[in-house]
Amino acid sequence: MADPAMSVTPYWELTFDADGDVDVPGRDRLLTGVARQGVRDLILFSHGWNSDRSGATRLYSRFFAPVPALAPAARIGYVGVVWPSMRFCDEPIPDFPHSAAAAAGRRPALDTDTRHALLGTFPGRAAVIERLARLLAERPAGDAGIEEFGRLVRLLVEVAPTGPQALFGADTLVDGVAPDGPGMFSCPAAVVCEEFAGALADLGSGPAREEFALPNPWDGAHELLRQATYYAMKRRAGTVGERGLGPFVGRLAARAPGVRVHLVGHSFGGRLVSFALRGLPQGVRTVKSVTLLQGAFSHYAFAERLPHDARAGGVLQGQQNRIDGPLVCCYSRFDQALGTMYPLASRMAGDARGLVGEMLGARWGALGHDGAQAVPGTHACVLADALSGPLPRSGCVNVDAAAVVRRGGAPAGAHSDIVHPELARLVLAAGRIG
After folding, report:
1. Of 52, 166, 272, 328, which one has the fewest beta carbons inside 10 Å?
2. 326 and 320 Cβ atoms separated by less than 8 Å
3. If DSSP codes are grouped into helix, strand and coil, which group holds residue 172?
4. Is the pLDDT of residue 184 over 60?
5. How far is 262 from 423, CA to CA, in rounded Å?
6. How far is 105 from 99, CA to CA, in rounded Å?
7. What does the pLDDT look like over 31-57, one tens digit per residue?
8. Which H or E run contains 296?
9. Please, what is the average pLDDT of the chain?
10. How many CB atoms lie within 10 A of CB 75?
11. CA dist., res. 217 & res. 96, Å (int)
């Protein structure tokens, strides 16, 4: 039965937990339904920052709504990927309702909505979250309180110096090994919070201080929790993609080998669907396109070698070759998610030399938010030009989504051997996000 809140049919949801384990009944309904409905092209869309399922569903409904009219002859199925991600509720996302806490300005204490979101995103950590909230509210004097806060933040997001999880949070590898995580997890908490407090004051996002006064570390403690949660969601997106979505696409290929799969991801969802390529079983060639809408990960994630270090390469190097079609990275001047929600990360994205950049892990464009630009052969172009001519050797093009909307979309029939001709215009909707 169709979801009354969804704009298209047939529509299914595919739900994963933080470890990438799938909801089995939902997965089986999807596998059975695809065959029963005679689906030929299946679009799987993953959200980025969302506090709950309803926010993700609204995003999917809006994005999918124009597709049936753009491709009336295609037999399309739609899948919304749901995974446990969150945003801080005092951070507005353009075009999305947000908590009234945002109107009150940034405050050091945790608002009720954010506390509830943390409880839902990090199950089993209720005592840790309540203690963090109490410390933020009380702001005890001395280093002991702030160091306890830092220790609890690391406990909350389960930071491990070594182990397989490090790979899922990495953008680049050095000699095949994931580099150390952000300095905010290894430096003394007082130093980290002081740096965050000073940077926020410079941005006008935190309490003003006198010219020669030292920043109060508690003014940066809330930002440490925010940035640590951001890192945890980045790492989780890679985990769910490789351990969850990739194996599912392999299972689908075994059950319905004629179905062409199109992966779409917004923000951290772009990271999720990209890491799904790493999780594809050997020999699976059913992924016919990947579309990254304002993908929130490094420009160099797909690069074979980094220009700054011959020993380093992207964590996804070569994975674009697992797509039997184009990898399209969409961006536009309307991209606001990173700058709106993480002003420190936005500020440091172009300069990894400062201490704040080290705290955030801003190495080699690791905080970039506008696509996989370092793939050899990549160039910025409008979608109509990209799809009407031959694809670059890498199979990757960067697309100015705003220009696509202005020019009316891609020509019918573009790359019809890869996807249904009318599906080439799917990316029109990219200009509406952000």
Report:
1. 52
2. no
3. strand
4. yes
5. 10
6. 11
7. 999 999 999 999 999 998 766 788 889
8. none
9. 74
10. 14
11. 32
